[in-house]
Amino acid sequence: RLSLLLPLLLLSGPPPTPGMEDAAFPHMGESSQPPPRACPPRCSCPRADTVDCNGLDLQVFPDNITRAAQHLSLQNNQLQELPYNELSRLSSLRTLNLHNNLLSSEGLPDEAFESLTQLQHIYVAHNKLSVAPQFLPRSLRVADLAANQVTEIFPLTFGEKPALRSVYLHNNQLSNAGLPPDAFHGSEAVVTLSLSSNRLSYLPPSLPPSLERLHLQNNFISKVPRGALSRQTHLRELYLQHNQLTDSGLDATTFSKLHHLEYLDLSHNQLASVPAALPRSLAVLHLGRNCIRWVEAARLRGARGLRYLLLQHNQLGATGLPPGALRPLRGLHTLHLYGNRLERVPLALPRRLRALVLPHNHVTVLGARDLAGMPGLAELNLAYNRLVSAHVHRRAFRPLRALRSLDLAGNRLTRVPGGLPGGLHTLRLQRNQLRALEPELLAGLNELRELSLAHNHLRIGDIGPGTWHELQALQVLDLSHNELSFVPPDLPEALEELHLQGNRIGHVGSEAFLSTPRLRALFLRANRLHMTSIAPEAFLGLLHLSVVDTAGNPEQVLVQLPPTAPRQPRAGGP
């Protein structure tokens, strides 16, 4: 689990058309009704200025549209062309929604927009345009031409639009040759530009200096020309993931002028090192799935405001993250190192680090002081490394007093590590080689709410008496896929979810769940239960039980729930 708070990109469709609210009903008791408005057949006109012809499979532009229309929705139809004479007379239009039709560039006449001098929002995404309109009105604020086949835009498509704020051109076929150098000349208010999923080979020059969000992911960009981002000093989010960037495609000035940049995504490229001259304002740096072998401390020294650093799936080896390399990042919250080749937990990490994510590395040793420099660490993920119990120091976890989640799944541990912090809420030890549960190793974990011990080699005799005694807050216990022959006794009273599937349980006695009156879900799938294996009284005290899964046993098992329990058991046969 990755505890990251990252910005989300939602560009899957056009924004909702304004002015489509439901019409208000007339007041009851009115003595006279206004004359009905003229409205195209099958369309709806909830207001005098709104015409909604959405999703009617129209093949022809509707007639009888009032000249007073300000908001016209024709999305989700089968229109192939817009007649000039019909569109040009709608001079009051502010919103034109043509999303998801069959419009070609030939069917969208340039001159049709000349009379739409008040148009502010145009949505033509998901059509068949091969080139953008040569002219769009000067009044435009939002233009969505995404998901077409556009190979070329023109100087007055988006140029000379002083009110233009957002342009969406993602999922087209634009190359650098199809973007004129003056594409945004005179449009000094654009804050969002999406050019993702096109065919760009380098970052386009002459982008609007007003930009705050720039989406260039999923192109073929191998180079950011020197000075290409020197004027975009307001840029806050820059998405360059899934390109072909190498170290030679960037230089020391590439990001140096971006004094407001907060989010930079360079993942899925071919970088061998961390970029230089990162701005102090940067909060999220995503460098996952590159070819980085070594992190140079000097490269990160300027990015002192960094909160989230993602370096997963690189080639960081034993010396890839030198001691203290990240110490300048005093405010770092999350360090993500999934899928590298690290052999130990990096030393001298920032003291305020809250989440360290290190699964699928080669960590074999945890020394007494390896984790001592991070007193505020709340989440530690060391799953699927090469840890063995003999090489985990008994005091390795003791300094982590703020730790709430510890994931040690998929290692080679034969016993629960000692000295676990008393404030733990979640402990994951599945897929190890545990053969014993010793009460003293779980002592003091009185805040533990979830414990996973699945896929080990535990038998009933390996669980020491009193093992569960101190786990009084435990709500979820996963003992699935072990070698248990019956339900372990004296389970914690707070338990709500119990996983026992994939064991060797052949009998459930009448007192099996006396200690767990709050149980809501019980999983007994794929054991050795027969039709009469469960005592009729076994569930009598479980008034909250709503799920009992007994599928995959040798015989169908009938479960009798208490009269007041919710009746949603799952029973199954072979």
Name its key features.
574 residues, mainly beta, 23-stranded mixed beta sheet, 4 helices, 23 strands, disordered N terminus, SLRP, signal, Podocan like 1
Could you tell me the number of beta strands?
A: 23
Main sheet summary: 23 strands, mixed
Low-confidence stretches: 1-32
Alpha-carbon distance between the two ends = 34 Å
Proportion of strand residues: 5-15%
Shape field: flat
Number of helices: 4
Rg from Cα: 32 Å
Note the run of SSEs as H and E: EEEHEEEHEEEEEEHEEEEEEHEEEEE
Mean pLDDT: 91
Structural class: mainly beta
Signal peptide: 1-19
Keywords: Leucine-rich repeat, Repeat, Signal
Pfam families: LRR_1, LRR_8
Region (Disordered): 13-39
Notes on the protein architecture:
It contains four helices and 23 strands. The chain is 3% helix and 12% strand. 43% of the residues are buried. With 574 residues, it is mainly β. Mean pLDDT is 91; it is low at 1-32. It has a 23-stranded mixed β-sheet, with no helix packed on it.
What's the topology here?
Layout: E1 44-47, E2 50-52, E3 71-73, H1 84-88, E4 95-97, E5 121-123, E6 142-144, H2 155-158, E7 166-168, E8 192-194, E9 213-215, E10 237-239, E11 263-265, E12 284-286, H3 297-300, E13 308-310, E14 334-336, E15 355-357, E16 379-381, E17 405-407, E18 426-428, H4 439-442, E19 450-452, E20 476-478, E21 497-499, E22 521-523, E23 547-549
Parallel strand pairs: 2-3, 3-4, 4-5, 5-6, 6-7, 7-8, 8-9, 9-10, 10-11, 11-12, 12-13, 13-14, 14-15, 15-16, 16-17, 17-18, 18-19, 19-20, 20-21, 21-22, 22-23
Antiparallel strand pairs: 1-2
Pfam families: LRR_1, LRR_8
InterPro entries: Leu-rich_rpt, Leu-rich_rpt_typical-subtyp, LRR_dom_sf, SLRP
GO cellular component, one term: extracellular space
